[in-house]
Amino acid sequence: MFPQKRRRRYVSLAAIGTVLTLAAACGSGSGDEPTTPATGADAEPAGEITVLTWRTDLVEDGTFDEYVTAFKEKYPDVTNVKVEGITDYEGEVKTRMNTDNYGDVLAIPGSVTPDQLGDFFEPLGAQDELGEEYRWINDKSFEGLSYGIPVVGNVQGIVYNKKVWDAAGVTAFPTTTQEFLADLQSIKDAGIEIAPLYTNYKDSWPLTQWDGARGAVTADPDYVNKMTQTDTPWTDESDSGVIDGLLYDVVAQGLTEADPTTTNWEQSKQLLGTGKIAAMVLGSWAIPQMAAAAEAAGASADDIAYMPFPAQVDGTFHAVAGGDYNLGINVHSSNKVTARAWIDWFNHDSGFSESQVGLSPLVDGPVPAALQGFVDEVELLTMNAAPAGKESLFADIDTASGIVTTDPKYRQKIVDDARSGSRTKEQVLTDLNAAWAKGRAEVGS
Amino acid sequence: MTTAATGLRGPTTAADTPDARAAREPHPGGTGGARRRRRLVPYLFLAIPVGLLVLLTYVPVVNMFWYSVTDWDGLDKVKTFVGADNYREVFTDPDNVRVFWVSLYYFVGSFVQMVVALYFATILSFRIRFKNLWKGILFFPYLINGVAIGLIFLNFLRPAGGLDSTLTAVGLESLVRQWTGDPDIANVTLAGVSVWRYMGLNFVMFLGAIQSISSEVYEAAEIDGASRWHEFWFIILPSIRPIVGLSLILAISGSLSVYEIPKVMTDGGNGTETFVMRTVWMAFNRGMVGLASAMAVVLLLIVLVITWIQRLVLPDDEVDLA
């Protein structure tokens, strides 16, 4: 559901990185002999595995070393867990998946379509069986088999600086997009250094976070599935239309940064903490990063708060909860038992989800304190899986239409047009519908 | 290309001299096998680089041609043949066509770049104090990595950054713009950065060509009473015409393959997306490796055609300067 979660993406090195890793992947790597007989139900975890992760920050600060130590304590036969942090995770892993050498445990890249899962990943169990233990496994399931388990659950909404909103006299969550715009305007009128809302246009991937509100606007857990059944998903009432319409309005009304081409993601965290910007549309995973940046900048972490997307159905806010990256097992792995043990251990015992202020992927897992207030006021939704046989339909239409909703480019275009006025909001939505209809026709749904 | 030609000519002429022939055959009574082995040696030496070239360049290129007629997404185990569909889309999808227009900014920029480079090269070919210092200063930007240049200019051009402060300090506030944020000038700005970077290379190429002109020609011209302008117009420019032609070709293919600077500075936002950026995006973000390969093939063909035209317009035999 939220495939493009690249927290620590260092801008611009993407392509270069890909080339380098390709070289590295060819040079080093898979010389390790299998030390354990591959499978067998009662084989004990032993030997060596390689784990690919997108959290380069946690590799660098030693968190993963602690995880490895704890894991080896539980399974003393395991000799080594090699953790590879990858900066441009999506791009590099996709390239490596053309070989057999892409680690034993890895997060499933968002670009793998459901019907491809079986080619690359080991099934972890039957979907309904696994669903009794874990949440949000629908995304990475195909024909009743699940291939990945999320490491943490996120809710989707807007992270904001409470102090700034309070100072502007806004204390309640805005309930409509109009109210949201008015609130941002009053924050602007109260005087704010940079902008009430920051788009992070230059780093661009934060724009994909707006997708998190799909389903929340109309409280429809089938919204994304329904998109595949209509030629006009971008209307004034539909989730997509409301979300992208809000983006257009907020930019057109000058409530975002003056020059979006010079935004800076790392800097934006401090700007939010110090109240130079008031809000950003991001998943709840961003809360701990924002809080840490606020403290580092000399402000208070308590100012960082979280609100739902400004829309209500029957007087209630809704927010979509979903899994982050899902861990899967390389189908070519020579040590699948240990790989599976790592995934289970990571979800049950590592304490990762709490440390990330996320929801636990376990069905009976705890809610972190920082999200408790939000969860009390907002009804959480879990998006439904695509119906059998149509698992890849959304991705196929999305790609064929050229919109590519998982990619920030079309929203950058919306921001461009809103600034220059070269297309009106209606034209933007009409063009999106036309492209979508073309994509549907091409896929033949 | 010219270096390769002279490189080949060298040994041939050397072998023609009697000394060289004597040195090559120290034992006139050598066996046939040894001679054959000796004849084989160059090919063995050749085998390694050519093998690497085939492995790392020609095989991938052939693969690229194959991908370009399939609908491969970069992962799928099956690649379906789709014929020329991808090529049709390269030229019909308005988003794909738009990036060609962006190239024009860089193309125009490269003319500015050549004029400036020629200007400096001419000045520095005359007797001037601190010649090497000037040369170093002008060439230095080319030595900096493109990503670093992008980052430098990102900070220099951001609102209230270096350029804006400088303009304000000298009282030219009215010129302050959103250098990358204003859609009307974003591409001009980026092309300007590109000119700043590559001017040094053009400059060195021109300077090298100018310095290879024999000083006798100048002396003769001076006796005839030629001014500096005459020297430039009637001696320097005609002599370096092949290099100017070569620069033109590099400018055209270069302006189609701009990547690093806009990638780092705007990441293609605000209408600054270039052909190569779109190709990369198509392959790795949209997941249409087939279409992206077709775009790469198109780029290759354009460059080949341009080179061919250049060879028609500026034949090789004019390389002789003296």
From TrEMBL, chain A:
Source domain of life: Bacteria
Keyword Signal on entry: yes
Signal peptide (from-to): 1-24
Keyword entries, A-Z: Cell membrane, Lipoprotein, Membrane, Palmitate, Signal
Pfam families: SBP_bac_1
InterPro entries: Bact_solute-bd_prot1, SBP
Claim: Transferase is one of the keywords in the record: no
Region of interest: Disordered: 26-46
Protein name per Swiss-Prot or TrEMBL: Sugar ABC transporter substrate-binding protein
Species annotation: Cellulomonas gelida
TrEMBL record, chain B:
Mode of membrane association: Multi-pass membrane protein
Any one GO biological process: transmembrane transport
Subcellular location: Cell membrane
Location of the region described as Disordered in the Swiss-Prot/TrEMBL record: 1-34
Chain segments annotated as transmembrane: 43-67, 104-126, 138-157, 232-256, 287-309
SUPFAM superfamilies: MetI-like
Domain ABC transmembrane type-1: 99-310
Predominant localisation class: membrane
A GO cellular-component term linked to this record: plasma membrane
Record's compositionally biased regions (Basic and acidic residues): 18-27
PROSITE patterns linked: ABC_TM1
Protein keywords: Cell membrane, Membrane, Transmembrane, Transmembrane helix, Transport
Annotated InterPro entries: MetI-like, MetI-like_sf
Pfam families assigned to the protein according to its UniProt record, in alphabetical order: BPD_transp_1
Domain of life: Bacteria
Protein family membership: Belongs to the binding-protein-dependent transport system permease family.
Name assigned to this protein: ABC transporter permease
